[in-house]
Amino acid sequence: MLSHLRPAATLVVLFTGLCGLAYPLAITGAAQALMPQQANGSVIKKGDTVVGSALIGQAFTSSRYFAPRPSATATSPYNPLGSGGTNLGATSQKLKDQIAAAVAAWHAAGRGGPVPSDAVTSSGSGLDPEISPQNARVQVASVAKARNLSEKEVAALVESQIQPRLFGVIGEPRVNVLSLNLALDQAGPAR
């Protein structure tokens, strides 16, 4: 019996050290060396202050900023601990009511034109930091008015922030709302 315990205990200690210590340290070291920005959560800073992450959406309620997609983390919006979709089906009355309320809020905020679908529906994670270029373009007039900027200036800023499809084929063009709003602040305060 004891002759079986020694090799088993040795293997437990060996694999615990290998899988629980050596492997995580090697992967963390490689990530820090090869892609430190991503390894540290894609944190975005304004000076020395962390203002958010490029990977997690956050609320912007002022009309001076571009609005993000709605959050599906209803009890605490944009909370990464509560990540997850709404799981409401297309025939769900609750989903229809949420969309109707979001459309009404969109128009109440002074945004005109057709309402893009990503402006009134949350993403699968409920935390998507990006909106479609169409969504950003529809918001240009209201943001320009709130900041007393020309629509041409704000539209040019939107176009400069559009991220293309990965390798030209994967995903859809998108605009990171936090990056766009920070670029908007950098472009100058409201006149």
Automatic annotation (TrEMBL):
The keyword Phosphoprotein does not apply. Its main location: membrane. It holds the Pfam family KdpC. Keywords: ATP-binding, Cell membrane, Ion transport, Membrane, Nucleotide-binding, Potassium, Potassium transport, Transmembrane, Transmembrane helix, Transport. It is found in: Cell membrane. The keyword Ion transport applies. GO terms for cellular component: plasma membrane. One of its GO terms (molecular function) is ATP binding. It is a single-pass membrane protein. Residues 109-133 are annotated as: Disordered. It comes from the Bacteria. The system is composed of three essential subunits: KdpA, KdpB and KdpC. Belongs to the KdpC family. Part of the high-affinity ATP-driven potassium transport (or Kdp) system, which catalyzes the hydrolysis of ATP coupled with the electrogenic transport of potassium into the cytoplasm. This subunit acts as a catalytic chaperone that increases the ATP-binding affinity of the ATP-hydrolyzing subunit KdpB by the formation of a transient KdpB/KdpC/ATP ternary complex. This is Potassium-transporting ATPase KdpC subunit.
